[in-house]
């Protein structure tokens, strides 16, 4: 009874439509009527694999739709179509007659010499696959070998991996050395590091650390201004200036606030299930910190000479600057009219930060989407876990 149900499901009109549309136009195997929207940033993947990419486990722009269009531009849609349809054939539950019909279709479209989508795999492998399939089609089905395409399938995967997949990774997957914030903060413990590297902090940081550091700094700035207004003492402003100078010179190594963020706040957030999804590369971050430090010293000096209105104006500039960074991940000099020259430098040397998104895997299985958008068939591949 169960086998009969499988046979009916395998022979459903929807599956026949998938095969018919895929053989007529292989691009229907990956093109979507409504592609998912991608973010405007560059992307990184913890471990980009072609197997997961072919199962459409990654979010855009590392999804099967984008990779398929990339293969089309490189004239490699034949290999991708052959791989997807062959995997669909291998994982489906087909009767012997159904298997032979679909095998003959793959032979006619992808393997025989001179066909419109003849795949570029080693000639020896392709000749053996063609010979074995023809012998199998001539038999009555008693010696049916469902692994007849395995070697050609592996060769097609290898060709994709060596060519289009490598160039696709160069274009979309931005591999960088992600920072180890705890090691950065505990630099003094590592005796193998040179003293010169003490003043060379990493230019890449996680968005969580970036946001928490700015938030703590802004709270200290607000508290310092309230302290000056009500108590007349600048201790919190001096502490904020010290922390800014420490981060300017050597990153998180001498800043107590950074230790609190790295060893207390970030582990607490991770315990709540938060996963890092964005990293920020800012090669000119120290220069921007220096400008903020100078402005902060100006606030302290103005407060000391009791020019409170001017001190609050400068504090408001620093506060707005910090809020802009929290919202847009970038340091915007236009909020300070005195930095018009720096604004021109930003446009000339492109000193803005570079934002990298972590492209994680999907939770659902891969599905073959037809041109109609409604008929699909989920393969037997399991759901992907988020790295």
Describe this structure in words.
- With 387 residues, the chain is mainly alpha-helical.
- 56% of the residues lie in helices and 5% in strands.
- It is built from 16 helices and six strands.
- The strands form two sheets. A four-stranded mixed beta sheet has the order 1-4-3-2.
- It is elongated.
Number of helices: 16
Shape: elongated
What would you call the structural class? mainly alpha
Fraction of residues in helices? Answer: 55-70%
**Tally of extended strands?**
6
Mean pLDDT: 75
Strand order of the largest sheet: 1-4-3-2
Major sheet characteristics = 4 strands, mixed
Radius of gyration: 30 Å
Summarize the entry for a quick read.
The chain is mainly α. Helices cover 56% and strands 5% of the residues.
List keywords for this structure.
16 helices, mainly alpha, 387 residues, disordered C terminus, 56% helix
Topology, element by element:
Elements lengths: L1 H9 L2 H12 L17 E3 L5 H5 L9 H10 L3 H15 L4 H16 L11 H16 L11 H13 L1 H9 L8 H5 L18 E3 H24 L4 H16 L5 H16 L6 E4 L3 H20 L3 H21 L11 H10 L4 E5 L8 E3 L6 E3 L9
Parallel strand pairs: 1-4
Antiparallel strand pairs: 2-3, 3-4, 5-6
Helix pairs in contact: 5-6, 5-8, 6-7, 11-12, 11-13, 11-15, 12-14, 14-15
């Amino acid at each position: 009874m169960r086998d009969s149900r499988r046979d009916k499901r395998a022979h459903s009109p929807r599956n026949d439509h998938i095969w018919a549309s895929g053989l007529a136009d292989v691009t229907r195997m990956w093109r979507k009527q409504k592609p998912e929207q991608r973010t405007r940033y560059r992307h990184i993947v913890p471990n980009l694999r072609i197997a997961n990419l072919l199962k459409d486990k990654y979010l855009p722009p590392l999804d099967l739709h984008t990779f398929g269009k990339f293969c089309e531009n490189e004239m490699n849609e034949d290999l991708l179509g052959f791989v997807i349809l062959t995997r669909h054939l291998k994982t489906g539950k087909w009767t012997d007659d159904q298997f032979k019909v679909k095998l003959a279709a793959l032979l006619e479209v992808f393997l025989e010499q001179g066909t419109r989508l003849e795949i570029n795999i080693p000639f020896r492998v392709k000749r053996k696959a063609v010979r074995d399939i023809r012998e199998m089609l001539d038999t009555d089905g008693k010696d049916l070998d469902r692994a007849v395409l395995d070697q050609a399938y592996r060769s097609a995967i290898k060709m994709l991996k060596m060519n289009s997949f490598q160039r696709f990774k160069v274009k979309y997957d931005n591999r960088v050395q992600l920072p180890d914030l705890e090691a950065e903060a505990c630099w003094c413990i590592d005796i193998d590091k040179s003293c010169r590297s003490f003043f060379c902090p990493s230019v890449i940081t996680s968005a969580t650390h970036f946001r928490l550091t700015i938030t703590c700094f802004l709270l200290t700035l607000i508290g310092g201004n309230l302290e000056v207004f009500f108590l007349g003492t600048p201790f919190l402003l001096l502490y904020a200036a010290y922390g800014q100078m420490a981060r300017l010179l050597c990153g998180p190594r001498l800043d107590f606030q950074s230790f609190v963020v790295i060893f207390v706040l970030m582990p607490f957030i991770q315990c709540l299930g938060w996963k890092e999804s964005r990293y920020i590369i800012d090669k000119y971050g120290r220069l921007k910190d220096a400008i903020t430090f100078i402005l902060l010293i100006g606030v302290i000096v103005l407060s000391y000479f009791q020019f409170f209105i001017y001190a609050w104006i400068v504090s408001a500039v620093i506060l707005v600057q910090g809020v802009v960074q929290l919202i847009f991940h970038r340091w915007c000099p236009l909020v300070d009219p005195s930095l018009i020259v720096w604004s021109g430098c930003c446009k000339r040397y492109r000193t803005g930060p570079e934002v990298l998104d972590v492209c994680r895997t999907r939770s659902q299985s891969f599905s073959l989407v037809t041109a109609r958008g409604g008929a699909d068939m989920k393969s037997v591949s399991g759901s992907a876990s988020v790295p």
